[in-house]
Structures are given as C-alpha cells and as structure tokens.
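Hi support team,

I submitted a single chain yesterday and got back a structure, but I'm not sure I'm reading the token output correctly. Could someone confirm the output below corresponds to the sequence I sent? I've pasted both exactly as they appear in my results page.

Thanks,
R.
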Amino acid sequence: MIIYALIASGIAILGIVAAAFAFSGGGNGSGAQDAITALREAGCTYQNPAPQGRTHVAALPKGFKANTVPRSSGPHSPQTIIYGAYTDEVPELNAVHNLEHGAVILYYGPKVSKSTVDRMVAFYNEDPEGLIVSKHSKLGSDVAFVSWAHVARCSKFEEDLASKFIDEFAFKGPESCKSDIEQGCFRKENMTPGNG
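Hi R., thanks for writing in. Yes, this is the structure output for that exact sequence:
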C-alpha cells in the first residue's frame, strides 16, 4: 500500500513538473521565439534550415548547393577565420568552421553605407568574443546575422536585433560547450579577437 502511494505521488510530481516545463516554453525556446518575432517584425527574414553536414574539406564538393545565403552550415575548411572585424570578405569555407564552434558572423553587403559598417564595428568592439564582422558579396544593401543553422537577413543594422540574435543563437554550435565542466569543446572565452 505504501509503495503504491509513493508511486502515485511520484507520478503526480512528474506530471506537475512536465506541465510547468510545457507551459514555460521548455528551456530557452520562448526567448528564441521572442528574438525571431522581433526580427520578423523589424522586416528581417529568418531561416533555421537543417544543417548540411560538418565535413572538413579543402574545397566545396562539386554541385554543393547551400541552403542559406550566407552559408550557415555544411562542408568547411579545417581552418577557422581569426576572430575580428574585416573590411574585406572572409572566405565562407573557413567562416562556417567558426560557426560550428558557436561563433556569430555579422555580415554586410557591398552596398551598405560606411556609417552602418562603422556602427557594426562599434557594436562588435563592445563585446567581440565569438564575433566576426565581414563583407559578403551576395548581400547587396542588406546585413545578416549568422550562427550555426540560423540566418537573419535585414535591410538595416539595428544593435538591439543583433543583441537578441546573439543572446539566443551564439555559442550553440555543434562544437560549443554545453556545460561548464565539458572538455574538448569551444567556449565564448576561447573565441577572442586574434584567435582562430
């Protein structure tokens, strides 16, 4: 009789915990949804396609077609980009490796104004760990925020939108550390300017 009461109590507690988890949005899901909503309300497009693999290659395989522009996953160089703000376009083949580690790349098109690029670099300088700023030839007058399998493309740069994207999607690549004690993975503090 006591065993049945304990089992029934345990089931009831599990039910309450499961309900609380479900109604809270489960982990950081509601925060991610809030960021996506804010991006879309600002006129940005948002994509979260299935990752296209993580193979290290010297060049993209013949016929490879990226599922996002800029690329957010897929075959990439074994060499990363050194974290920093660039005036020239960084090779996507290398940049995707940074995304795998959990980085975010703030891209700007060749038609984006110098004043906007300056604002992006100023934003980067406030907290540069895990960030890269780079031109991207296929963006025209748009900017994009890119992490592993997440791309937001906007017609203008807004610091609060970049912050929301970073807060929700940075440091969550497949090689990012998932806990403070995990080893052999990448943390924000490993992604400082000048490191690759």
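A quick pointer for reading it: Residues 82 and 195 are 5 Å apart (CA to CA). Let us know if anything else looks off.

Best,
Support desk
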